[in-house]
Amino acid sequence: MTNQEKDLLIHLLAQYTVLSPEEKQSEKLLMQAKADVEHTLGYDVLNTKIDDGNDGFPTVMTIPQMAKFLQIGISKAYEMSHWVGFPAVRIGRQVRVPKHALLEWLEQQQHAEQQQHAEQEQMQLKTVWGRR
């Protein structure tokens, strides 16, 4: 488990339980705390909405939530979660996408696409001017 995954799990668990310093350091104890919370509440704590705005989407989204957020198909969303550089976080077999990281990634993609388009236009102009 990476530090980022641990931090996310601690954040989610902290809503439902008090974590001791030992639990925060031990992956085994973190997973036991998660299982205890899930057993007590009767549902997966990782699906809990933590809404940071009025858009109705949680700060940490599941793949189906991300698909709805981006208005794309679920298959494409799952495919994107495997792309190199895509801001998906794996917690065991679960995949989550932090909304702020997704928005930053989208901006980077837009900037890269605009830059590529500008370079293509420049090449076309050089080709046209080179023929005269």
Automatic annotation (TrEMBL):
Domain of life of the organism encoding this protein: Bacteria
Alphabetized Pfam families for the sequence: HTH_17
GO molecular function annotations of the record: DNA binding
Residue ranges constituting the Helix-turn-helix domain according to the UniProt record: 60-109
Stretch forming the signal peptide: none
InterPro entries (UniProt xref): HTH_17, SinI_DNA-bd
Protein name per UniProt: DNA binding domain protein, excisionase family
